[in-house]
Amino acid sequence: TWNVLLSLSGLVALIQLVFLPFFPESPPYLLLQKGDKAGCLKAMKQLWGEGNYHTEFDDMMKEKTLTKGTKIMNVLEVLKERSVYPQLTTMLLLLLSLQLCGLSATANLQESIIPYVSLGVAISELISIIFCSSIIDRFGRRILLWGGYLLMALILVLLETSLLLSDQFLWMRYCSVILIFLFIIAYGLGP
């Protein structure tokens, strides 16, 4: 019944996708990235209820002032910066540990191909991190979450279909592998 278990993560993604439009944008994002002071205060009230949030707002304004002259770095500049190596090491360890999640085994492939699938999973994770880090400031977290969950739900439906048809058509196993890669990329872009 592993296919039912795999479908449950799609159900959770679908539930989150339905409720996400009802939540406001992050107040720091609205203030620091978009410069929307009124939207920031409105989001604070919607998230935390009625109250006086001048202290939090002043802290964000101070942060905005401090980061005003700070240059936003691209991915290659971050990789060259030695001060972020501990964080990059932690991230790489997390990516490598994801290799043990078992997604490669769900495609019902020959054992000789599974190492290549594992390598493809790692490359998919790397692609999603690089791509997400370069577009997150442009689109914001909300759009990436919404799109990521939508893509994940669609990919899981296609993956379930390809797995059900893999006994009838052998080439569907390779479609399953491609869908697994796409699922990982969608997960990395959104959630």
Automatic annotation (TrEMBL):
Keyword Zinc assigned: no
Membrane topology classification: Multi-pass membrane protein
GO MF: D-glucose transmembrane transporter activity
Major localization listed first in the record, in broad terms: membrane
GO CC terms of this entry: plasma membrane
PROSITE patterns in alphabetical order: MFS
Membrane-spanning parts: 6-24, 113-136, 143-165, 171-190
Biological processes annotated in GO: D-glucose import; dehydroascorbic acid transport
Signal peptide: none
Annotated localization: Membrane
Domain annotation Major facilitator superfamily (MFS) profile: ranges: 1-191
Keyword annotations from UniProtKB, A to Z: Membrane, Transmembrane, Transmembrane helix
Tagged with keyword Transmembrane: yes
Gene3D superfamilies: MFS general substrate transporter like domains
Name of this protein: GTR5 protein
Species this chain originates from: Nyctibius bracteatus
